[in-house]
């Protein structure tokens, strides 16, 4: 009798916990995410649909969008390349300073983006040590597009290698050794054995990296110099029009970023689903 | 000698994996490298393959020194303990991999792969992926993949370790038959003496980075070269005071002896018609059923011995007094072993009752 009573109590307890947990999570998500997003959409359309279209087809907005996309694609491409190399190096070879390299890769996670921007100002800017060289060769980095791209690369560097390293570690070296014994070249081993194995992790890293690159504000803000139509990315552009009290325009432009974010989230879910299916 | 190792040493930090290892293998032989874990057998295999470099010493394959030849150019087939099948390729592509690297034409590759799939008896499974195969099937694919490029030497690292007991038995005889059919010189590593004895033409016994003995399974069984081999092979147990036993005199400097169950006969009182004077009296301590026989522990003058007794014979009980006839034992000192026969049995011969 008492045992039965206990189990009923236990079930009741579990049910209460479940309800509380779900309610808290839901409330949190609604207050912190859903309501602000709805407000954003509402504000974006406050002055009417034509105003909205006007805001998002504004020359400067289009230019900012273009720069954001260019910076994102370049940063993702470069980070994919170096991320692959770094991950391959630390998982398949033993060398001195491996732990140091792993720590260095993580630095952008730890350093505030604003500081990252300042680092590059101090390197390439008027007071920087590389300034003379850049001046002599007529290369402009600070307050120019290359600066925006460099800032984006720095901030998003760890995403790809961090996604691949655990997968490669779990795989071990046997398959590579087997292929090498049969005389396969390093590139062939990479293409036929290593790459298929980390394909999904790599794609997932690329998606995360893109999301982060599009939204980057701090480091880019320091390096870009806010030249409207030249070095403004979308997040910077939103800030500028917001500071000019064009609220609905600012929200309209923000909605572009939201749409991009949603697209990336959908991509992420597809990749996750496929990875689960493919990861026998 | 087809494969020859000369004075190989290899150290990992402070662990001596190979300590002056030398041996030679004839063409076409199937060799078992047998030793306890950590005795350096896998290191030897990996050095022959070129996956590890020896610190000093020479490795010859077919008369050519291969120390400076990279693994990929040595023409060796290697079967990994984990099989290391390419998990994102199906059976066909796995086996074809080595042939594609050799830039064989499509038809040649297809013919060879299908021939091998037939050889390993996996027809119809060529488009399965490794994770859709059983352990035994994976092992067969790994074997076929290693053989596909026609290597001159096949190395297998613990080929049966990852397979359950029943299939392992089957695969042992399968592998032995395959290798003899293909006629390829092969070396396999194992820590299981039954496996080595059953499969290998010759066994090399490794111990603490050194080669203790090399010979046919029977030779190693009958004439263990070192105390380690004598203890490692068979179900050996140590006899502390062998000279107190009837028929065994003390041999100079040899203080201990090794005995195996098959060296001992346990007889019910009155069962022994011969050699009675060569037998000891003992008391049965315990009896355990071992499937096809009984394992009997007896005590003789304070020393314990383990022997077997057929199930067909009249049963004995714990506590029963029995006659214990010891045929022979191995006596040893630091580095020699010596077979000692029961002298009393010889003396007894003419006095047949």
TrEMBL record, chain A:
Family matches, as InterPro entries: CysW_permease, MetI-like, MetI-like_sf, Sulph_transpt2
Domain of life: Bacteria
Subcellular location: Membrane
Record-annotated ABC transmembrane type-1 domain positions: 65-268
Any GO CC annotation of this UniProt entry: plasma membrane
Membrane topology: Multi-pass membrane protein
Membrane-spanning intervals of the chain: 20-45, 65-88, 100-127, 139-160, 201-227, 247-267
Quaternary structure annotation from Swiss-Prot or TrEMBL: The complex is composed of two ATP-binding proteins (CysA), two transmembrane proteins (CysT and CysW) and a solute-binding protein (CysP).
Role of this protein: Part of the ABC transporter complex CysAWTP (TC 3.A.1.6.1) involved in sulfate/thiosulfate import. Probably responsible for the translocation of the substrate across the membrane.
Protein name: Sulfate transport system permease protein
Taxonomic placement: Bacteria, Bacillati, Bacillota, Clostridia, Lachnospirales
TrEMBL record, chain B:
Record domain ABC transporter: where: 3-233
Keywords from the named record: ATP-binding, Nucleotide-binding, Sulfate transport, Translocase, Transport
PROSITE patterns, A to Z: ABC_TRANSPORTER_1, ABC_TRANSPORTER_2
GO molecular-function terms, A-Z: ABC-type quaternary ammonium compound transporting activity; ABC-type sulfate transporter activity; ATP binding; ATP hydrolysis activity
GO cellular component terms, semicolon-separated: ATP-binding cassette (ABC) transporter complex
Enzyme's top EC category: translocase
Alphabetical list of NCBIfam families matching this protein: 3a0106s01
PANTHER family membership: SPERMIDINE/PUTRESCINE IMPORT ATP-BINDING PROTEIN POTA, SPERMIDINE_PUTRESCINE IMPORT ATP-BINDING PROTEIN POTA
Name of the molecule in the record: ABC-type quaternary amine transporter
């Amino acid at each position: 009798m008492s045992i039965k009573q206990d189990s009923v109590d236990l079930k009741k307890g579990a049910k209460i916990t479940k309800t509380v947990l779900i309610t808290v999570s839901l409330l949190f998500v609604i207050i912190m995410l859903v309501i602000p997003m709805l407000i954003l959409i509402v504000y974006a359309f406050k002055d009417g649909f034509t105003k909205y279209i006007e805001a998002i087809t504004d020359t400067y907005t289009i230019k900012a969008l273009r720069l954001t996309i260019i910076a994102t694609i370049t940063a993702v491409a470069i980070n994919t390349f170096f991320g692959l190399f770094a991950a391959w190096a630390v998982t398949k070879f033993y060398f001195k300073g491996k732990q140091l390299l792993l720590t260095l890769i993580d630095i952008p996670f730890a350093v505030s983006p604003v500081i990252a921007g300042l680092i590059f100002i101090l390197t390439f800017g008027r007071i920087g040590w590389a300034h003379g060289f850049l001046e002599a060769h007529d290369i402009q980095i600070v307050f120019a597009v290359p600066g925006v791209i460099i800032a984006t690369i720095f901030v998003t560097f760890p995403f790809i290698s961090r996604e691949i390293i655990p997968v490669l570690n779990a795989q071990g070296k046997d398959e590579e050794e087997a292929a090498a014994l049969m005389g396969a070249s390093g590139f062939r081993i990479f293409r036929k054995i290593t790459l298929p194995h980390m394909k999904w992790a790599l794609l997932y890293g690329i998606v995360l990296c893109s999301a982060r690159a599009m939204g980057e504000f701090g480091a880019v803000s320091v390096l870009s110099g806010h030249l409207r139509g030249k070095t403004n990315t979308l997040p910077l552009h939103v800030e500028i029009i917001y500071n000019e009290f064009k609220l609905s325009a600012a929200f309209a432009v923000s909605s572009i970023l939201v749409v991009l974010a949603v697209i990336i989230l959908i991509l992420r879910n597809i990749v996750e689903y496929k990875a689960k299916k493919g990861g026998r | 000698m087809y494969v020859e190792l000369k004075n190989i040493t290899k150290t990992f930090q402070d662990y001596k994996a190979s300590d002056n290892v030398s041996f030679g293998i004839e063409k076409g032989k199937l060799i078992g490298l047998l030793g306890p874990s950590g005795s350096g057998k896998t290191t030897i295999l990996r050095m022959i393959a070129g996956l590890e470099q020896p610190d000093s010493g020479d490795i010859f394959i077919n008369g050519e020194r291969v120390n400076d030849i990279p693994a990929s150019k040595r023409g060796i087939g290697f079967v990994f303990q984990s099989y290391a099948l390419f998990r994102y390729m199906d059976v066909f592509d796995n086996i074809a991999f080595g042939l594609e690297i050799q830039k064989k034409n499509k038809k040649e590759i297809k013919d060879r792969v299908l021939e091998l799939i037939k050889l390993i008896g996996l027809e119809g499974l060529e488009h399965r992926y490794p994770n859709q195969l059983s352990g035994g099937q994976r092992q067969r694919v790994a074997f076929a993949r290693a053989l596909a490029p026609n290597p001159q030497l096949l190395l297998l690292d613990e080929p049966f370790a990852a397979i359950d007991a029943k299939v392992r038995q089957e695969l042992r005889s399968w592998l032995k038959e395959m290798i003899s059919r293909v006629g390829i010189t092969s070396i396999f590593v194992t820590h299981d003496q039954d496996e080595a004895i059953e499969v290998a033409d010759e066994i090399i016994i490794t111990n603490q980075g050194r080669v203790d003995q090399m010979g046919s399974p029977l030779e190693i069984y009958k004439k263990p070269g070192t105390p380690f081999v004598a203890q490692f092979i068979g179900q050996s147990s140590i006899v502390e005071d062998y000279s107190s036993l009837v028929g065994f005199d003390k041999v100079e400097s040899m203080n201990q002896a090794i005995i195996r169950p098959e060296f001992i006969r346990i007889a019910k009182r009155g069962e022994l018609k011969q050699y009675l004077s060569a037998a000891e009296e003992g008391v049965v301590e315990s009896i355990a059923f071992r499937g096809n026989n009984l394992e009997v522990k007896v005590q003789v003058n304070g020393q314990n011995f383990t022997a077997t007794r057929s199930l067909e014979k009249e049963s004995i009980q714990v506590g029963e007094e029995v006659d214990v006839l010891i045929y022979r034992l191995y006596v040893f000192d630091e580095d020699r072993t010596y077979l000692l026969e029961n002298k009393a049995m010889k003396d007894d011969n003419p006095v047949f009752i």
